[in-house]
Amino acid sequence: MPVTSLAPDPARCLLVPFASALDPAALTALRALTLPCLTELLPRLQVTAEAGGGEWLYTPPHERALADAMGLTGEDGALPWAALESTQPGEAQAWFHPVHFQVGMDQVSLLPASGLDEACSRQLFDALAPLCAEDGVTLEFVSAQRWRARGERLGQLSCASLDRVWGRSVAPWQPRGPQAPWLRRLQSEAQMLFYTHPANDALAAAGQAPVNGFWADGAGAMTASPQASAPRTLDDLRTAALQGDWPSWARSWERLDANELPALLEASQRGEPVRLILCGERRAVAFTNGPRHRLTGWLRHFRRPTHPALLLETL
Question: What global pTM score does this model have?
Answer without folding.
Answer: 0.89
